[in-house]
Amino acid sequence: MIKIAPSILSADFGRLGSEVEKVEESGADWVHVDVMDGVFVPNITIGPGVVKSIRRFTKLPFDVHLMIVEPERYVDAFADAGSDIITIHFEATKDVRGTLEKIHGRGKRAGLSINPATPFSVVAPYIADLDLLLIMTVNPGFGGQVFMTECLSKVREAKRHATGIGADFDIEVDGGINAITGKLCVEAGANVLAAGNALFGCRDMRSEIAQWKRF
Ligand code: DX5
Ligand code: ZN
C-alpha cells in the first residue's frame, strides 16, 4: 500500500490549520512536517510550537522530518508537540543510535534520512532499529526543486537490502516528487511519497492523491 504524505512546506503558512484539514480531506495518509534550522540547511521553517498548534486540526499521523543539527536535543520537544514519526538526518548527529533510541523511548516511530550525496551503506547498520528510511531525492532545504534521478538506485538498494534481511520498514522519498517521479520511486521500492509543490500546487489534491495511490 502506497502512503502519501503531503508536505506542508508548500502550504499557506497564514492558514496552516485549514491546510492540514485539507490534507486529511484529500485522502492523504500522513502530514509531512519539514523542520529546518538554518544550520543543517539554509532555510528556517517551523518549530515544536507550530507543530503543537496544528495538531488539533487532524488525526493523521505527523511525519516530522527534522533537518536540524543535533536533533537529539529536540526529540522531547517534538514528541511532546504531537509528532508520530520523528525522522533525523544521518549527517546531522554524532549519535545516530542514541537518538533513534530516544525517539523509541518516547513511544514514537523512528526514521533516518540521508541526503543525495550520502550512500545507503552508512545507514545499513541501523536498519534493524528503523521504522522508516527517508531517502532525499533533492538536497534538503527548499520545496519545488527538481527530482534527482540518480537517487533511484539508492531506493532500489534499500529495498533489496530490506527484502534480503526480511526487514519491514517504510521507504519514503522526498523532494521533487510528482506523478512521474513518484511512480518511478514506487517501482524502485519506495512505499511512502512525500510531496509539497506537486500536491499543494495542483487543482485537485484529492484526485491527485487517488491517482498516486494506484502506482
Ligand atoms: C525539502 C523538504 C521536502 C519538501 C518537498 O527539503 O524536505 O519535504 O517539502 O517539496 P517538493 O515536493 O516541492 O520538492
Ligand atoms: Zn521533508
What does this structure look like?
The chain has helices spanning 16-25, 48-55, 75-80, 96-105, 152-165, 179-188, 197-200, 205-212; strands at 3-6, 31-36, 62-67, 85-89, 109-114, 132-136, 170-174, 192-195. The longest helix has 14 residues, at 152-165. With 215 residues, the chain is α/β, with parallel strands linked by helices. Bound molecules: D-xylitol-5-phosphate and zinc ion. D-xylitol-5-phosphate binds next to strand 2, strand 8 and helix 7.
Question: Could you outline the blueprint of secondary structure elements for this entry?
Answer:
Layout (H helix, E strand, L loop, with lengths): L2 E4 L9 H10 L5 E6 L11 H8 L6 E6 L7 H6 L4 E5 L6 H10 L3 E6 L17 E5 L15 H14 L4 E5 L4 H10 L3 E4 L1 H4 L4 H8 L3
Parallel strand pairs: 1-8, 2-3, 3-4, 4-5, 5-6, 6-7, 7-8
D-xylitol-5-phosphate (DX5) binds next to strand 2, strand 8 and helix 7.
